[in-house]
Amino acid sequence: MNSTEHYARDDFDSLLNILHQRRTWPIQCAICDMPHGLPPNSGRELVFLETTESSADNPRYACSLVFEPPELLLGNPRHEIDVLPVVFTVIGQIAPEDCFLTTTGDTRTPRQDHIQDRPLASYWLESRPDRDSCLEWRQLSMAIEHVVSIAEHPLNTSRVVRFVPNEHAVQLHVRFCPEEGELDDTLPLVKLGPPNTRLVPASLSEVPFNQPLRASFTLEYIHEGDEWYLFADLITLTDI
Q1: How far from the centroid of its chain's Cα atoms is residue 171's Cα?
Q2: What are the residues facing 235 on neighbouring strands?
Q3: Within 10 Å of residue 100's Cβ, how many Cβ atoms?
Q4: For residues 74 and 5, what is the distance between their CA atoms, to the nearest angstrom?
Q5: Cα 233 from Cα 122, distance rounded (Å)
Q6: What pLDDT score was predicted for residue 77?
Q7: Residue 229 CB coordination number (10 Å)
Q8: Can you give the pLDDT of all 240 residues of the chain as single tens digits?
Q9: Rounded CA gap, 16 and 10, in Å?
C-alpha cells in the first residue's frame, strides 16, 4: 500500500478478514466434484506457482489461488490481489511418535528434509478419537492427492502423509522452519485466550498431546535429488 494513504483501523481489520477468507480452506474442501474444488465460473483457479524464495538452483512451488480478474482491496483500484497462497486447515491432535515440536526441534543429522542448516520443528497430526473426526480424516489422503494432481511435476507425498501400520489411520506431517531467529522466538503454537498465549514447549512433556488443535499450513513442493517432494509448512497451531 502507498504509505501516504490513511485508513481507519476497521478498514485494516476488514482487509485482513478479506485476505483470510479468500485463502483459508479446510483441507477436506480440496475434494469436490467441481474442477479443483472451486465453483464453476468463480474467476478463481487453484495452481502451484513459484514462490518468491524460488531460484534456479532451488525451485519452490506453493499451492495458490489465482484471481481473474483481480479483486479490489478496500474498493481501491490501485490495491488489488491477483494471487494468494492457499492456507489449509485441519483439526486433529499431535501424534506422540516422531514429534519434534519443541524449542530444540529436530536435531537429527541428517534429517529427512532438504533444510539442514536452520532450526526445524515438526510433528505428525492425526485424527481425534471421536467418530466424526475419524470420518473426516479418512478424506485427508484423497484431498492431498487432489491438490497434487494440479502440479506440473509428479510429486512424492511420503513427507506429508503416512498410514499407521495395522490401523490404516492416516497422519499428516507438518513442519516449521523460521526464516530468521530460533524456535523459542518464533514457534507459532498458540493457546487461545483471552489473552492469547504463545506456547513454547522446551521438552516433549510440555507438548499438548491428546488435545484438539487446529493446524493452518501451506502446501509447497521442492526438488531434491531425482524427485519432487511435497511439504506442509506450518502457519499456526492453536487449541480449540
Answers
A1: 14
A2: none
A3: 20
A4: 12
A5: 9
A6: 67
A7: 19
A8: 333 344 344 443 444 454 555 567 777 766 543 344 454 444 467 899 999 888 888 899 999 988 887 777 656 666 777 888 888 999 999 999 999 999 999 988 877 777 777 889 999 999 999 999 998 998 898 899 989 999 999 999 999 999 987 677 899 999 999 877 889 899 999 988 778 899 999 999 999 999 999 999 999 999 988 999 999 999 999 998
A9: 10
43: left (phi over 0), alpha (psi -120 to 50) or beta: left
Query: What is the CB neighbour count within 10 angstroms for residue 146?
Result: 18
Rounded CA gap, 119 and 183, in Å?
7
- Which candidate, 16, 124, 29, 27, places its Cα nearest to that of 73? 16
Find the radius of gyration of the CA atoms of the chain: 19
> Phi-psi category of 134—alpha, beta or left, where left has phi over 0 and alpha has psi -120 to 50?
alpha
CB 120 within 8 A of CB 179: no
The pLDDT of residue 163 is: 92
Q: How far is CA 123 from the centre of its chain?
A: 13
For 64, the 3-state DSSP assignment is strand
Look at residue 146 and give its three-state secondary structure: helix
Q: How far apart are CA 229 and CA 102, in angstroms?
A: 24
For residue 42, what is the DSSP state?
Answer: S
Are 67 and 43 spatial neighbours (Cβ–Cβ below 8 Å)? yes
Cell of residue 233, nine digits: 509448512
What confidence score (pLDDT) does residue 111 get? 75
d(CA 201, CA 208): 9
pLDDT at 36: 46
Residue 151's closest CA among 48, 224, 65?
Answer: 48
